[in-house]
Amino acid sequence: MSVRVVARVRPLLKSERDLDVILRTGSSAPTDSKSRLSSAGDKTEKTDKKLAALRDRDNVVRIPNPKNEGEEYAFQFNGVYDAQVSQQELFDAEVAPTIKHLLNGFDVTIFAYGVTGTGKTHTMRGGKTLADRGVIPRLLSGVYRRSKKIEKDSEGETNVQVALSYYEIYNDKVYDLFEPPEKRTMAGLPLRDNGGKTVVCGLSEKPCTSLKEFEQLYDQANTNRSTSATKLNAHSSRSHAVLGVKVTITSPDKVRVSTASAIDLAGSEDNRRTENDKERMVESASINKSLFVLAQCVEAINKKQHRIPYRESKMTRILSLGQNNGLTVMILNLAPVRSYQLDTISSLNVANRTRKIEVREVENDPMFKGPARPAPRPSVAGVRQPLRALTASVNVNMPAPPKDPAEKDDSKPVKAFSVYSDKPQPKPTSQLRKPDAPKRTSMSNTASHLPTKATRQPLGAQSASHQADISAAKIEEMVERKVEAIMAQRAVSEQSKQSQINELNEQLQKRLEQLEQRIDGTEDARAEGLSYLLMAKQHQARGEDSSALRMYQLAAPHFPHNTKLAGKIATLKERVHSKVWEQNALSPKGRLGSMLSLKKEPSHTLGKRQAQDVDGDYVDRTGGFSSDEEVPRHQHKKRASAKLAQIEEDPEVLDSEDPSVSPRTLHLLSIINSRDVSQIKLLKGVGAKKAEALVDCLCEMDQPSDTDSGAFPESQYQVSSLAELSQLKGVGVKTVENMRQGVLA
Ligand SMILES: Nc1ncnc2c1ncn2[C@@H]1O[C@H](COP(=O)(O)OP(=O)(O)OP(=O)(O)O)[C@@H](O)[C@H]1O
């Protein structure tokens, strides 16, 4: 049976517009244009008929090709539910049928997959009202209801117990959600392989007897889950959450255990849109990486590849898609709007491939109760039994025993052959039908302990030599004993071999754990570095140089001696820097704003500033000012070239050789501030005309003297940074760069 994949399209959020809806489901018009979250509560009762109709229509999701709007991609699933479908309807159609299987001993896995903000948590956990409750509380409710029925039907002979475990995978580490966050260790809980299943070691398991108790436990545990506000979702899950519902059914003769796993995966994030900070970025990198590994696993299974990369992420190891037995339902959550288009297509692709994954629908083995069964002797089970003669057989070569005249003649004819069996005989003594005659008093006791003894005794041959009889019996007995001794010896050696194997396995397991821990440590760091690199590449591919630079810088500590990485960082820094200048120069607001406001402010000479620098009145390697009297000007400059200042002030972006304060820059600024046309015109890229215009511009910006009070003499406007220079009339970033390069430091 393959994984059941159903798609659920969420309604429009209040911030989204009907116009932006691009997804179509079934034979409907563009999805949900009429349904908004505000009206979601109004849609209450829907009949079974309607639900059946929902199931019957074509289960296709259609989305336009982003490169050619006229063309549509269509994806078929096992079920498609649009925004009008209520929590109850989705549950009834997709999850309720699995409860029966769960209580029949099958494991069930239900997981929600999709981009951030598409409704996974809403689907799995849901809201607080009865109608809004999601899959998980409804599942528990169904389990309790069915358990009660089983107990009632069996008149109390069968008992059903439910126990819960709940954990999250946050930054590829597993944490118990039933434990408060303070109790967490850095490494999280380790995973182990146990009989083909991945288990979390040290996870707490809470017996839970009622729905009410479940709600308390679940709500409390959810407060321990890592969630945060991102730009795309005010309550974004920053981890994958796995709820395990273990059901133990104890009937008079057996115990059956099965588990339902309800998984709310974290959503993939496009960090162009999230505007995540560093912490969110780290989370996001981990989420995206695990989802990427999941997609790789799905692809590898589809392509029937030998190696499925389950172990590359804890989430995929736990989910074990295609390796887990039982039933698996994937709920693909989708947002109907254009801003999600690329992410939606990629989710649809993954889900489409998941649909083809086959899972074995195997029920868990029950454990039988009752008195201990006679276990086969250790290690003998696999050993071929020595041939044993069936006791009913007789040897045709032996003379027939004299018949008792009283005996009826309806006895079966004597078989003309001996029948031997190599099957173990579970109850040999009772099955053994001793020959009626002759009775050998001397050996009778011994013989009764030797059930497997072949009856080679000539029937009714009492006249034969007693000596020969005894010796034959003795020989048989000796053979029997010898065989048993050999068997016992073998059993012992098998046992010790087994214990050696167990010991070896334990040692191997320990070694594996140690290795895993070691690898986890180094791999974690490496993986983190790699995910930064991956994100940096993605940003760079999209032309987001500053984000790419930031990611490369975050990756750098993980690859300390990587010259290529260092080179990339340097190149990007350079590029980011010049881009910012360009932006400032090109921005009409920035240019005009700076020209206007600069005029209003008192000016200061470069000489004065340098003096202040020497006195240590301000510390500013970006060309800004920090002395009290300079504050307004400094603030103004920041406004005028906000982006530049932001980048210049960011120590991670700006290296110590900031060109704005290098000797070359200072020299260039002093030439400009000298207002000497003959000198300025000699600068690279500046002719006489440009030099004159530049000086005119500087004069225009001079502050007139405060004639009323006579407090200040006319002060000359001085250019204090390259950014400022690039904003002057007729001067652009390129000109400034040319001027600077032409100046000898
Ligand atoms: N079917 C729905 N009906 C009503 N509201 C919905 C539905 N699906 C999603 N929403 C709303 O959409 C918003 C985002 O949903 P949710 O938090 O469940 O997304 P998510 O996929 O879990 O996101 P993340 O991956 O970031 O955790 C929430 O405000 C939620 O209430």
From TrEMBL:
Q: Where is the composition biased (Polar residues)?
A: 25-38
Q: Which organism is it from?
A: Penicillium olsonii
Query: Which intervals of the chain form a coiled coil?
Result: 494-525
Q: Where is this region: Disordered?
A: 24-48, 363-382, 393-412, 418-468, 601-660
Q: Name one GO biological process term.
A: mitotic spindle organization
What PANTHER family does the entry give? CHROMOSOME-ASSOCIATED KINESIN KIF4A-RELATED
One GO molecular function term?
Answer: ATP binding
List UniProt keywords, sorted A-Z.
ATP-binding, Coiled coil, Cytoplasm, Motor protein, Nucleotide-binding
SMART domains documented for this protein: KISc
Pfam families (UniProt xref): Kinesin
Q: Quote the protein name from its UniProt record.
A: Kinesin motor domain-containing protein
For this protein, the record's SUPFAM superfamilies field holds: P-loop containing nucleoside triphosphate hydrolases, RuvA domain 2-like
- Residues where ATP binds: 114-121
The record's family statement is: Belongs to the TRAFAC class myosin-kinesin ATPase superfamily. Kinesin family.
The organism's place on the tree of life at top rank: Eukaryota
User: Biased-composition ranges for Acidic residues?
Assistant: 647-658
Report the residue ranges that make up the Kinesin motor domain in this protein: 2-357
Which GO cellular component term is one of those annotated? microtubule associated complex
Indicate where this protein resides in the cell: Cytoplasm
